[in-house]
Amino acid sequence: MRRILALLVLAATAVPAGGAAAQALRGSRESVDRMYRQARAQELTFYRSGKGVRGAAESGKLVRMSGNDDYRLANVAYPYALSSTRRFVQRLSSQYRDACGERLVVTSGVRPTSYRLFNAADRSVHPTGMAVDIRKPTRRSCLRWLRETLLHVEGQGAIEATEEFRPPHFHVAVFPRQYLAYIGEKPAARGSRTGRTANRGSGTTYRVRRGDSLWAIARRHGTSVERLKDANDIRSSRLVAGQLIVIPAGR
């Protein structure tokens, strides 16, 4: 009888795969409210339609996530996000690939209110571009690494992460000011999108003019084409007049 009771106690207290991290990444109404309060406190726009999202991308309020050697997009209807959120994806995916030898998979970026899914929360922050969904790895070691890393960054007050199961993914809301402070970068000054260049992140931004090329812009700002591509998460050399690109700080 004592042996049976001991086994029952052990089963009741056993920690599932992923340990405390899996427990801490559980969603709650408080978590949803925290993300929503941050979006409101940082005066983020909740985009209502695809047209609004595309307009925000053209004006530089949202940036495109194109994928690179460290991460790829899968079935993402609107591959845009806030620049701080894309920065998070770039850094996390680079670390993930070093740890696991595979690319991270992003399954959602900004999602306008008109594109609401069946499992979306009433106060979803996806319409602001501050949140991304990340597919859960199938390898246990990679899943454990991702859980622990998200839990660590969340502990710094820079993100709010939730592990979802239908479908299996991590929902991550990146708090712009807190995350940039966490990685040691300065946020853009308010009203800095006007003019040809402006402070943004760790460098400046430049609005592309007709006839510009990456080579000419890099030469003009004392940087390289490779650094421009990396800072803006772009693969091709094609530019569009009016496009806003980040000029990385330093040489």
Task: Note down, in words, how this protein is organized.
By secondary structure, the protein is an alpha+beta fold. The protein folds into two domains: about 15-180, 2-Layer Sandwich (Muramoyl-pentapeptide Carboxypeptidase, domain 2); about 190-245, Membrane-bound Lytic Murein Transglycosylase D, Chain A. It has helices at about 1-15, 20-25, 30-40, 50-60, 85-100, 140-155, 175-180, 215-220, 225-230, and strands at about 65, 70-75, 80, 105-110, 130-135, 160-165, 170-175, 195-200, 205, 245. A hairpin with a 2-residue loop joins strand 8 (about 195-200) and strand 9 (about 205). The longest helix is centred in the middle third of the chain and has 18 residues, at about 85-100. It is globular and about 50 Å long. The termini are far apart. Mean pLDDT is about 80; it is low at about 1-25 and about 190-200.
- What order do the helices and strands follow? HHHHEEEHEEHEEHEEHHE
Shape: globular
Q: What is the number of helical segments per DSSP (H or I, 4+ residues)?
A: 9
| Terminal-residue CA separation | 72 Å
CATH topology of the largest domain: Muramoyl-pentapeptide Carboxypeptidase, domain 2
Strand proportion: 15-25%
Indicate the structural class.
alpha+beta
Sheet with the most strands: spatial strand order = 2-4-5-7-6
Radius of gyration: 20 Å
Residue-averaged pLDDT, rounded? 81
